[in-house]
Design a protein that fits this description.
alpha+beta, 8 helices, globular
Length: 476
């Protein structure tokens, strides 16, 4: 049974609308039916002849509903090729729906923040956690020979998987000390003291008031996050899945694997985003930082809030106690998310690496199910590939069907391939390791979204190890 004249007419009507630059959500109903529901109804039908007829239309439907990137693993340039509907690379319908909000402990959005500037709204925790909402969308990762593709769509195209709506903290997380709950707030009160919670520094240049919390293990970050809602696993510390989501959203938007590419606020001549997020908070001297405040965080949470839901950098000057010659840094923000890399490392949950001794393997296990998150085994996790066994700049990531960003081959450089570093070591006996991402304030060119560090057990703490806060709705 072939497509009826009416069915083919309806499909072509929708495709014609795409050609004219419209989105499905903008189209008027066709005979009282939502156009996307109608398209799904027509596409999801029995009959080999009809399927064959639709097969000729599907690539065109994908090209009009999808935008993404393609790169060649043999090419050293970190710049990638935009694919799909070029108009969507200008409007960025998925990234543009990322927005700041105040989220209650039960997952209710109390208030969406001013898209242009958040500083006029309450961000101290009294009206909820300061989070960025990531919309639900659909995604597909493809490998064809040396080519790898990342495809995004607002619609459930064949072969695409749903990425559920979720929330990530706008800021590097701190802790409410009186309750030991993980928080995302701009609050300089003593109850939200960051770093290692040293009260003696409160009235000094070393103050940790208003800074993110560190010197906490991944185990405790998870525990502190889940205190926000009892009998629920919806609140979590930063997850590997979230890190992966943000990285590929960035890559598709900026068409580069290099997150430290110089920031450029202007669109290019085609109307596409260009550049990257710049160096970030990555260029301080380790010894000076250590003498200054013991390698604790120093950028206040909410420092870039004048940028609202936007992307950009805000200059930060280190105190003279760090160096009499004023050291200036550019604090980055991506779509409302402050310091997505650099400043302090981020513990991530939902990823455990089994690093075998000797000539064994470093097996990467991941899970997007918070019920399975743990620090002692791989139950309920999927083995997605093997991590590189040596340190070095990332040349290749596991990728696969899930778009894994763990490095599997090193040998790149600071301006080639992924432009980020990979750090690990081989133990004397098989060991479970956690993974931190992003780099710290002294990482320099090594830092970035894809800088992975699998050196430590999840119980390890450091003054420059932090995390973020995530909310993963069960019903999303």
């Amino acid at each position: 049974m072939a497509l009826t004249t009416d069915e083919e007419s309806k499909v072509r009507q929708i495709i014609t609308a795409f050609e004219n630059g419209k989105r499905l959500a903008d189209l008027p109903d066709v005979e009282g039916t939502n156009p996307f529901d109608l398209l799904c109804e027509v596409l999801d039908t029995d009959g080999e002849s009809k399927k064959a007829a639709l097969a000729t239309l599907l690539p065109y439907v994908e090209d009009t509903c999808m935008y993404g990137i393609e790169y060649d693993t043999t090419v050293s340039s970190p710049d990638v090729t935009r694919i799909g509907n070029m108009a969507l690379h200008k409007s960025l319908p998925i990234q543009s729906r990322m927005k700041g909000c105040l989220l209650s402990d039960d997952g209710t959005v109390n208030e969406y923040l001013n898209p242009s500037d958040w500083t006029g709204q309450t961000r101290d925790g009294s009206r909820g956690q300061v989070m960025v909402e990531l919309p639900m969308y659909y995604r597909k990762f493809e490998t064809e020979g040396n080519k790898r593709r990342v495809k995004l769509s607002e619609y459930p195209l064949p072969g695409y998987h749903q990425v559920k709506k979720k929330y990530v903290s706008a800021y590097e997380a701190t802790v409410q000390r009186s309750t030991t709950m993980l928080c995302s707030v701009a609050n300089e009160g003593a109850d939200y003291r960051g770093g290692g919670n040293n009260a003696d520094w409160d009235s000094t240049y070393r103050t940790l008031l208003g800074r993110p919390a560190t010197s906490i293990s991944r185990t405790n970050f998870r525990t502190y996050a889940r205190k926000r809602k009892s009998s629920s696993k919806e609140w979590n510390c930063m997850t590997y899945d979230m890190q992966k989501d943000l990285y590929w959203l960035f890559v598709v938007e900026y068409a580069t694997l290099n997150s430290q590419k110089a920031f450029n606020a202007q669109k290019d001549s085609n109307g596409y985003a260009q550049g990257g997020l710049g160096d970030g908070v990555t260029t301080v001297d380790w010894t000076k930082w250590s003498n200054f405040n013991g390698n604790n965080p120093f950028v206040p949470c909410g420092y870039t809030d004048t940028l609202g839901n936007g992307t950009g950098v805000v200059e930060f000057s280190m105190p003279t106690e760090y160096d009499a010659t004023i050291k200036k840094l550019n604090v980055p923000r991506y779509r409302g998310i402050e310091n997505p890399f650099g400043h302090i490392w981020q513990w991530t949950d939902g990823i455990n690496v089994q690093i075998e001794a000797g000539d064994g393997l470093s097996k990467v296990f991941v899970s997007d199910n918070p019920e399975k998150f743990n620090d002692s085994n791989y139950d309920g996790y999927s083995h997605v590939g093997n991590e590189a066994r040596t340190e070095g700049y990332v040349k290749s990531v596991i990728f696969g069907e899930g778009g894994e960003i763990m490095p599997d081959v090193v040998g790149g450089g600071s301006t080639t391939y992924f432009c980020d570093y990979h750090y690990t070591n081989i133990p004397s006996a098989t060991t479970l390791r956690g993974v931190l991402f992003g780099g710290s304030a002294n990482s320099g060119a090594l830092a970035g979204f894809a800088y992975a560090y699998s050196f430590d057990a999840p119980s390890y703490t450091a003054a420059y190890f932090g995390s973020r806060l995530c909310f993963l709705p069960q019903s999303a």
